[in-house]
Design a protein that fits this description.
heterodimer, A: 290 residues, mainly alpha, ABC transporter involved in vitamin B12 uptake, BtuC, 12 helices, 2 strands, 3% strand, globular, B: 381 residues, alpha/beta, Rossmann fold, 7-stranded mixed beta sheet, 5-stranded parallel beta sheet, transmembrane helix (chain A), transmembrane (chain A), BCAA_transport_permease (chain A), membrane (chain A), transmembrane transporter activity (chain A)
Chain lengths: 290, 381
């Protein structure tokens, strides 16, 4: 039982990271109908921005704000440079452009900062606390807390605010939204900014656990992508549940079946979903788009 | 001007022959070229940078001392991207240059396995740092190893843990790639011979983001000592931190990556008081000390095995070419195999007929981040 509790906590912690990145995937997919394969690189870039800001002598909180502002700017540049010029094309060129952008981002950071993995200290001086038989890593606690806050925030933002409803309207039917006076391009711009910030937040939060490296983004993004499909592509709740489920499944699978096949469990579940329930747990609201 | 059939035929012949003549002329160029596959990008890019620096430092010294066959040595580096397909591509790019006389391959066994078939096809000497014992025992006469292989490291880890530290309940943790699998097998085999079979033999996949299940398995096994073979330093760093966080403080004797500069930086205090088998230990010999000084002065970073093996590889290869008096691959091969009592950064090289240059390991201890040399264990077999 102690073992299971420890695994559950770790699984939820790592799953929350997948969920944060998956959320970025979903938001952009809903707004543009394309998958942004550079979402993982957003996490990596933010982690490096954080390292640079901390090394420059900024207090941790200020470095955090600087990094997130940097990500907002990256979201603007990404939208204008990658999505906007191709917005009238089919989804394929846009997807290829996002793959190209992810390679560009990774190699740019490599060229500027070098290949050295970096250590980013966590928010708390205490690495964790022991609660009975379970060790609670403070960074994972923070990640879980932030994920819960974001779930609440997203619900409030998308369901209770005018801007959120405009974003939803844009994602559901761009032409109708436009006819209703909503600036579609502005909404898409806001979506890219929000997704970049979300991806960046995930990167900054997970950096003290996984270290800051060029590869960190792609590693997380692959799992987050799987989480998005499992949860239901295009569904915010699905992304969160999918991410958490994936984290828990792979952690328990590694502990009780096989450690070397840990990644295999995640993708086995993904394949099973693609075969038996391709719309994911919550399913895509196809009717809304029809 | 009238073009005769003879003129036309001569023109065609000249056109066909020209590229070969130009290539041949290049092959007899002003420098002696040595190719190097190194991870410039990918997870091992940092250690790859150290490897390139080690090779360049050696070549600078060789050139200052008169060069190779009276010419300046030149290093041509191709990025292996820290992947198997990457090193195959990098090696094929280098192999297509006929004026490259010898090569430096990878420190990662799995990459050396990937490039090995092409090495046989090319038939030129390739210096390697991969420590899977099979690499020099699978009939590939062109691979020459500049680090002691894992049949030695497994025996040294087992011997040190059982005899010196007095521990008999072993948990063995290893990567599931070629290096880790071979290392884990060597260690469990050595433990069985010492009458202390492992209570846990656990593999893990490279680039894991979480080692909680592994740490809990170690905890549950009741092991009183841990032996490890980690391929990548970031994996080692994450594992070390989680091991300590989850309250496992048993002695830990690891393969050389446990004392790598990158691992020490990432894991920090989580690696304090661990032991490592190290092919490079700065205080282990005069050659090691000399390299340490050159490297620190030039790179401003503490040296480790990532740079020491490439430093030695360039020195031995250059000396072998000079001794052979030729760039003929077979003659270079004979000269490398004839290398005995060569004092390198990693220790004394005595090549056997398999192409293994080193036959022992150092034991070192991490004392608050400082790597302290304990002893060297040499084997005669």
């Amino acid at each position: 039982m102690d073992l299971a509790l420890q695994l559950l906590f770790t699984g939820i912690g790592i799953g929350a990271v997948y969920a944060l990145v998956a959320l970025g995937f979903v938001l952009i997919f809903r707004a543009t109908n394309v998958v942004n394969f550079a979402q993982g690189e957003f996490s990596m870039v933010a982690a490096y921005l954080m390292v640079v800001a901390v090394e420059a002598g900024l207090p941790y909180w200020a470095a955090f704000i600087v990094a997130l502002l940097g990500m907002a700017l990256l979201g603007v540049v990404f939208n204008l440079g990658v999505y906007y010029p191709l917005r009238h094309r089919t989804y394929l060129p846009v997807i290829i452009a996002t793959i190209g952008a992810s390679i560009l981002l990774a190699n740019s950071v490599l060229a500027i900062y070098g290949p050295q993995p970096q250590v980013l200290e966590g928010w708390f001086e205490t690495p964790g606390i022991q609660v009975g038989p379970v060790y609670l890593d403070s960074q994972y606690l923070l990640i879980i807390g932030v994920t819960i806050c974001l779930v609440i925030f997203n619900f409030w933002f998308f369901e209770k605010t005018l801007l959120g409803k405009k974003l939803q309207a844009t994602s559901q039917d761009k032409e109708m939204a436009s006819l209703l006076g909503i600036s579609v391009s502005t909404m898409i711009m806001i979506t890219f900014i929000y997704s970049a910030v979300l991806g960046g937040l995930a990167g900054i939060l997970v950096a003290p656990v996984l270290f800051v490296s060029i590869q960190m983004g792609s590693t997380i993004a692959l799992k987050a992508f799987a989480a998005t499909i499992i949860g239901g592509f295009g569904d915010v709740t699905g992304a969160i549940i999918g991410g958490l489920a994936l984290g828990v499944i792979e952690t328990f699978g590694a502990a009780y079946i096989s450690v070397p096949y840990k990644d295999g469990f995640a993708f086995l579940v993904l394949i099973a979903f693609l075969i038996f329930r391709p719309q994911g747990i919550f399913g895509e609201r196809v009717a809304e788009k029809a | 001007m009238r073009l005769t059939r003879r003129d036309f035929a001569a023109g065609i012949a000249a056109g066909i022959a020209a590229p070969y003549l130009i290539k041949s002329a290049n092959a007899q160029g002003a420098t002696i070229k040595i190719g190097m596959c190194a991870p410039v990008t990918g997870p091992a890019a940092e250690s790859g940078g150290y490897a390139i620096k080690g090779a360049k430092l050696a070549l600078e010294a060789v050139n200052k001392a008169g060069g190779i066959l009276g010419k300046q040595g030149e290093l041509i580096v191709e990025d292996d991207q820290t992947t198997n397909p990457g090193i195959v591509l990098a090696f094929s790019k280098l192999a297509s240059q006929p004026d490259i006389v010898g090569f430096l391959g990878s420190i990662r066994s799995t990459q050396v396995h990937a490039m090995a078939p092409d090495v046989i096809k090319l038939g030129k000497p390739v210096m390697i740092g991969g420590t899977d014992p099979n690499l020099t025992h699978m009939g590939n006469q062109w691979l020459f190893r500049f680090r002691p292989n894992d049949s030695y490291s497994g025996r040294v880890i087992a011997e040190y843990g059982v005899s010196t530290l007095g521990k008999k309940k072993w948990a063995v943790l290893h990567s599931t790639d070629a290096f880790g699998t071979a290392g884990g097998k060597a260690l469990t085999g050595a433990l069985e011979k010492l009458g202390a079979p492992s209570v846990l033999d656990q593999g893990y996949a490279n680039q894991s983001q979480d080692f909680t299940p592994v740490v809990l398995a170690i905890k549950q096994s009741g092991a009183d000592i841990l032996g490890s073979y980690f391929t990548f330093e970031n994996d080692l760093g994450i594992f070390a931190r989680q091991l300590r966080q989850l309250g496992v403080n048993i002695p830990w004797v690891g393969s050389p990556s446990i004392v790598n500069i990158t691992a020490l930086k990432l894991a920090g205090p989580a690696l304090y008081n661990t032991y490592g088998v190290a092919d490079y230990a700065e205080d282990s010999s005069e050659g090691s000390k000399a390299f340490g000084k050159i490297y620190r002065d030039a790179v401003k970073v503490a040296p480790d095995n990532q740079s020491s093996w490439t430093f030695d590889a360039i020195n031995v290869l250059s000396a072998a070419i000079n001794k052979a008096g030729s760039t003929d691959p077979a003659k270079i091969r004979e000269a490398i195999l004839a290398t005995k009592k060569f004092a390198g950064a990693e220790g004394e090289y005595n090549f056997d007929q398999n192409g293994d240059g080193l036959h022992g390991y150092n034991i070192v201890k991490n004392e608050k981040g400082n790597i302290v040399f304990d002893k060297h264990i040499e084997f005669n077999d």
